[in-house]
Amino acid sequence: MPKLDICFSPELLPLYDLRGQVAVIVDILRASSTIVTALGEGVTHVFPVASLEECAAYGRQHGCLTAAERDGLPAPGFDLGNSPFGFLNADRPPHGRALSISTTNGTAALRRSLAAEAIVVGAFLNLGAVADFTRRQGRDVLVVCAGWKGQFCLEDTIFGGALAARLAPDFDVYGSDATLAALHLWQQGQADLSAYLLQSAHVRRLNSLEANQDFAFCLQIDAYAKVLPLWQNDRLV
Ligand code: 3SL
Predict the structure, then answer these.
(1) What residue owns the CA closest to ligand 1's atom 10?
(2) In this predicted structure, what is the pLDDT of residue 94?
(3) Which residue among 4, 44, 116, 197 is the one 20 to 30 A from 233 at the CA level?
């Protein structure tokens, strides 16, 4: 039976062997939610890159939209920041455009997971699509939580618990304390995710940046039920 495990932070990735596994990259607030939204709103493909320089270079080379964030704020000189609402602006629809994006933790977590057999971006917005995909793959799954600058984040971990709950009993979701902890968080928080996460560090950080509408948006389960950002060559499609 395949197993699901959870890596609480990209700093812990050297402890895992991603070869042959499906990596689910999660940065609920907000990179993975923003990438899902962008693809759901008509962006053709996404180049997730670690540095601001690469983000700008991809923008020039591919003529694509650019989005960048550092410390929660839009990085200067790019078309957009890291808010999903950037892709919901009726005056500037993203249809048919590609996107390069660089964020503090989320896109860097993806770049550090390239040894995996398959890489998919997960969020509450596409939880069902990720669960269906991982079930079809039938391989071991590692949920890679982007965290915050190497630290544990509640919202990414509770997503891991939600995915584990969806994959049980077809997957072994009881094999590590990390997954057990995530399942416990999900059992505690699922009835009112918003209330449960209110005290979390990143929610407080976003609130101080007046990005609290993003928080509620990113917690919508299966709002983009058909969006499955899959890594192919150098991009998410
Ligand atoms: O670090 C990241 O990847 C971002 O998602 C953080 S923020 O939500 O834009 O602050």
Answers:
(1) 72
(2) 82
(3) 4
CB burial class (10 A; 0-12, 13-18, 19+) of residue 201?
A: middle
Q: Which atom of ligand 1 is nearest to the CA of 29?
A: 8
Q: Report all structural domains of the chain as residue ranges with CATH numbers, in order of start.
A: 4-41+102-231 (3.90.1560.10)
Q: For ligand 1, what atom is nearest to the CA of residue 27?
A: 5
Q: Measured from the CB, is residue 106 less than 6 Å from ligand 1? A: yes
- The candidate with the shortest Cα–Cα distance to 94, out of 106, 105, 86, is 86
pLDDT at res. 20 = 98
Closest CA to 93 of 133, 120, 65: 65
The whole model's pTM is what? 0.97
The answer, yes or no, to whether any atom of ligand 1 lies below 6 A from the CB of 30, is yes
Beta strands 46-48; 99-102: pairing state: parallel
Q: What percent of the chain has pLDDT over 90?
A: 92
Q: For ligand 1, is residue 9 a contact (CB within 6 Å)?
A: no
